[in-house]
Amino acid sequence: MYNTLIRTLALSETPHRSIHPFLQMHRHNALLPDSFTFAFVLTGLANCRNLRAGLQLHSQALHHCFCTHVFVGTILISMYGECCDSCSVRKVFEEMPGPNVVTWNAVITAYFKCGDVCGAQGVFGRMPIRNLTSWNVMLASYAKAGELKLARRVYSEMTLKDGVSWSTMIVGFAHHGYFDEAFGFFWELLGEGIMPNEVSLNGVWSACAQAGAFEFRKILHGFMKKAGFLHIILVNNALIDTYSKCGNVAMARLVFENVPMARNIKTWTSMIAGLAIHSGLVDQGCAYFSKMKNMYGIEPVIEHYGCMVDLACSIHGNIELAELVKTRLAEMDPNNSGEKPNEVTKEAQSKLREIMMRLRAKVGYALQVGNVLHDIEEEGKEDSVSKHSEKLAAAFGIVKLPKGRVLKIVKNLRVCGDCHTYMKLISKVYEVEIIVRDRIRFHSFNDGIENGIRKAKKGIGSK
């Protein structure tokens, strides 16, 4: 009974509570934990990244002689990986008498989660036996880390590939802006006679959205329909999102209205966000927002209120609505209401001040405060715009990245006009290529020019 309860809590939205039944067991001397007990509690601690409790549980596992148990030891490694403790990952692994291939795979994943790419490479090179999962773990980890040349190398060395392998390459290359490569992997998958899964379809569909591949998008939509994928809600959400980003709102609405199953919160978000992109569709966006809440009983989340800001505030200067939305956001997330600056290192803040001064001196840069809707003085508006998160991220990247590396920034809202100008100028003055991924698209800045949607670089990883 205790194991079932612990496992349920470990996999729930409150995994930290999985420790409570374990402590109750500990108080009853007649109830001894087994290997499953420790594995389930460690899974819960991994899911909530509670390193302190994990260390204490590790001590308990030692006391009960379970640390050399392959199942418990493997979960311990995963827990330390989630908590970014690579030293403990290495220690547990080295003390295991007979790790199996699952354990080796867990160590590789843990090292990547800790940011130790070299450590993961070393473990992969020492593996006595590799299965397909081992190769896919390396593939996925390299792709997620942006090490696409290394991902390409691993992919070319694989003697056996499955749908996961192709999906990883499609999604990984599309996510980092290499759209032509993503399309190539998709065609290769079809050429092998393998039916794409919803992950690979969403990956290539995302590439269509970012690259503006209109003709390919039509072919892909027809393929999805013929293959029967339109009954999957995730596929419909991706279709709505992509048509919106490509400017075909009419098609996005057609897909939305013909979704064959119950729409989920992502479906509504994709549709409202799509309307938010296009400044002339305020009424329709507001209508969907109202229908979602009042007719279908789906409570709006922060993303929906962000879309409403885009719809009527930043574009149309509706300050009253902006203040209303701002108040609601503050209620939903008091720690992220836009009133407090992001916590970045003092080094990044210092570099940002240096960049601002240099841009003013060299190219006459002046902050653009027209989109600041708060009712504050001009000086306050300038202070607000100067501390936008993407500016701090760029400053931090210039400090930390070696010369010649591409600076990549991800933002979950639209990039403001001033930040566009800022990125263009620092790309020229500091001679750095910058890629910004906002809520809508990729922006590429190089030598003072914004190239808009970033196309794939030819021959990445090729000889």
UniProtKB/TrEMBL annotation:
Gene3D superfamilies: Tetratricopeptide repeat domain. Residues 364-449 form the DYW domain. PPR repeats lie at residues 100-134, 162-196. It comes from the Eukaryota. Keywords: Repeat. Belongs to the PPR family. PCMP-H subfamily. This is DYW domain-containing protein. It comes from Stylosanthes scabra.
